[in-house]
Design a protein that fits this description.
It is built from 7 helices and 4 strands. The chain is mainly α.
Length: 174
């Protein structure tokens, strides 16, 4: 039997499947789509050319399979240079590039991880044996929201209305 890695940050089939099921959607702005549309579309705000978006998606796919933020940044720099992408938010300063690449990297890793976990947790066999879910606030959040912190440890049935609005990631980074 091959060695298997486990733990947070370890990619898993449901996480990868969620990301790969998305359709590439060129956009001009970050708010071109909202809410649940993000579950079906892969976007990078301002990436309006198909070849650019395809390359960025490949870099995100590698990141979700265990790539580091540092490697993603190298890939991003190469892709931007190769595809001649200019005028994107963050371009022109080291801090801007660091911010933009971190947003793309973290957003895709956190949302795909949560979607994969949700799929696992809603498996009928899992629900039969584990019908209660617990909200656990991340201690790694730099600017925690007091309301979100107040939910830490809250345990409710999987079908409680709370989960429809608060299943992680709940707010950027919480």
């Amino acid at each position: 039997m091959p060695d298997q890695a486990f733990g947070f940050g370890t990619p898993f089939a449901e996480q990868i499947a969620f990301l790969r099921a998305k359709l590439n959607l060129p956009t001009e702005r970050w708010d071109d789509i909202t809410r649940a549309a993000h579950d079906r579309a892969f976007i990078v705000a301002g990436a309006a050319k198909a070849d650019l978006l395809t390359d960025l998606r490949g870099a995100v796919d590698q990141a979700v399979q265990g790539g580091s933020l540092g490697q993603f940044r190298k890939d991003f720099d190469r892709i931007v240079a190769t595809r001649g992408w200019t005028g994107w938010t963050g371009e022109g300063s080291a801090a801007g590039v660091a911010w933009r690449t971190k947003v793309i990297y973290q957003t895709n890793l956190l949302t795909s991880h949560a979607a994969g976990r949700y799929r696992q947790l809603t498996d009928p066999d899992t629900l039969d044996s584990h019908p209660y879910w617990q909200y656990v606030h991340s201690d790694s959040v730099l600017h925690p929201r007091p309301l979100h912190q107040s939910w830490d440890g809250l345990t409710l049935r999987h079908d409680h209305p709370f989960w429809a609005e608060h299943f992680p990631p709940n707010g950027w980074g919480c």
